[in-house]
Amino acid sequence: MNAANSADTRSAERSVAGPGARRRPIIEPFKIKVVEPIRLTTRQERTTYLEAAGYNVFKLRAEDVLIDLLTDSGTSAMSADQWAAVMRGDEAYAGSKSWYRFEAAVKDIFGFAHVIPTHQGRAAERILFSTVCRPGHVVPSNTHFDTTRANIEAAGAEAVDMPIPEGLVPSRVHPFKGNMDVAALEALIADVGADRIPICMLTVTNNTGGGQPVSMANIRAVSEVCHAHGIPFYLDACRFAENAWFIKEREEGFDHRSAREIAREMFSYADGCTMSAKKDALVNIGGFLATNDTSLARQEQNLLILTEGFPTYGGLAGRDLEAIAVGLEEVLREDYLTYRIASVRWLGRHLTEGGVPIVQPPGGHAVYLDAAAFLPHVPPLQLPGQSLVAELYVEGGVRGVEIGTVMFGHTDPDTGEEVPSRMELVRLAIPRRVYTESQIDYLVDVVLDVWDRREAIGGFRFVEQTPVLRHFTARFEPLYEMT
Ligand code: F0G
């Protein structure tokens, strides 16, 4: 891609009406105070590092990665105000000033009566599901994230995904592809009975389904169905601000409302939520669980004390609580959300213009490459997503993550045969406030260069794997000559 051309297109595409009539590019709404060097390695070095890592990018040293898009979780750059708040952290074991600041910030946006701090999202999930789930229970969602599913299953219950059908077709454009299939939910309730459904969830945005938003209408409809049957309704709120912004941009009647008002309305339909503050609270660690149910909150706090900590810190330091309180306020600022959603859309637009198949439209926190369409000659069991992840690293030091057969494939217990995943995706998750536009342009170039030589790219095979969560530790080898 030519840099001069890219700048022209950028001004035309990424612009908003300014105070006058002139349209200007959307820019990063911050300047940089602290920098962290990143290192450009040679192709030969990257080939060597990748081979030594068994072609598994989870085993690379982060310092050998140039643009790290493994996750948007815990990778945000904190602001000067957040760092100042860190210094204000009150480390009293019980009732610290930081706790009260954190609690007030969460209640102001989320509105729930009880807030239970945890060290990250999955700790909130474990406490919630081990309290409400029993064997024989079923927990529906638009799509459960993998730790959510694992915690439900660990409590002996069944996790059921019910996305709308559009959510399963990568090329299909729909404004709210994260929506739940409400008719399927009603059918499930009729089938298993409301008393076997201790809780129903919506993940906003739907990470596993491509970072796609859920509409306010869908949140309202799912809430109504749940409440008509006495089923508590929860949000997995990790990326609530990005979801609120998509509602503002895409749903009728919301364009003049603030992201904060929209977020408040989203939570007003729910009975509680789980939250990983590592995403839309702009911090590197933290989370919470919230509920309006006082007796449930008591039980959860007892469990919290057992494994996380006293209810006014829950596994976090006072300074972490402070940083979350400030981050929750910053993440809802309109200039931040405008920039955030536009920069992911910008990446998606340029890959699409280059012909690269991605999950359409781009999500809030990531662009998902459709590896099955990118490498149609590589069958699912030869792990096309793994090939793409390896090639992106060798080509330009970019680290993405495979979300396909490596992560979700499994062995059929009856036939002993390997069953591929429903989709073969590679997620390029964009850390918040971390990479500049020229780094995103570099990323586009790297993907397009791999795209240009796609026909020469072959498959991979496992040489070592574990029975559970194999993607973290597996070793692979290419079935073709990598160049
Ligand atoms: N729910 C969703 C939708 C998530 O995306 C995650 C984490 C969690 C819950 C668990 O939160 O990591 O704080 O324990 N997602 C990260 C990711 C790991 O890369 O998408 P956690």
What does it look like?
Helix 2 (43-52) packs across helix 15, helix 5 (121-132) runs parallel beside helix 6 and helix 9 packs across helix 10 (259-268). The chain has 2 domains: 3-74 and 333-478, Aspartate Aminotransferase, domain 1, CATH 3.90.1150; 80-330, Type I PLP-dependent aspartate aminotransferase-like (Major domain) (Aspartate Aminotransferase, domain 2, 3-Layer(aba) Sandwich). Strands 4-10-9-8-7 form a 5-stranded mixed β-sheet, with helices on both faces. Strands 11-16-13 form a 3-stranded antiparallel β-sheet. The protein has a two-stranded antiparallel sheet with strand order 1-2. The longest helix has 20 residues, at 334-353. The chain has 17 helices and 18 strands. Helices cover 40% and strands 14% of the residues. It has helices at residues 3-13, 43-52, 80-88, 97-110, 121-132, 146-154, 182-192, 216-228, 240-250, 259-268, 294-307, 318-330, 334-353, 371-374, 384-396, 405-408, 437-452, and strands spanning 15-17, 23-25, 67-68, 114-118, 138-141, 158-161, 200-203, 233-236, 272-276, 287-291, 366-370, 398-399, 401-403, 410-411, 418-419, 425-429, 460-464, 475-478. The chain is α/β, with parallel strands linked by helices. Bound molecules: ligand F0G. The site of ligand F0G has 15 residues, from helix 5 and helix 6.
What ions, cofactors and ligands are bound?
ligand F0G
CATH architecture label name of the largest domain: 3-Layer(aba) Sandwich
Sequence of strands across the biggest β-sheet: 4-10-9-8-7
The average pLDDT is 94
- Total strands: the figure is 18
What would CATH call the class of the largest domain? Answer: Alpha Beta
What fold name stands as the CATH topology of the largest domain?
A: Aspartate Aminotransferase, domain 2
Structural class of the secondary structure composition? alpha/beta
Q: Write down the domain tally.
A: 2
Q: Bin the strand percentage.
A: 5-15%
Helix content: 40-55%
Which term fits the overall shape?
globular
Low-confidence stretches: 1-15
The CATH superfamily of the largest domain turns out to be: Type I PLP-dependent aspartate aminotransferase-like (Major domain)
- The quaternary state of the protein chains shown equals single chain
Q: Tell me the distance between the termini.
A: 21 Å
Number of helices: 17
Largest sheet: 5 strands, mixed
The radius of gyration computed from the alpha-carbon positions, rounded to a whole number of angstroms, is 22 Å
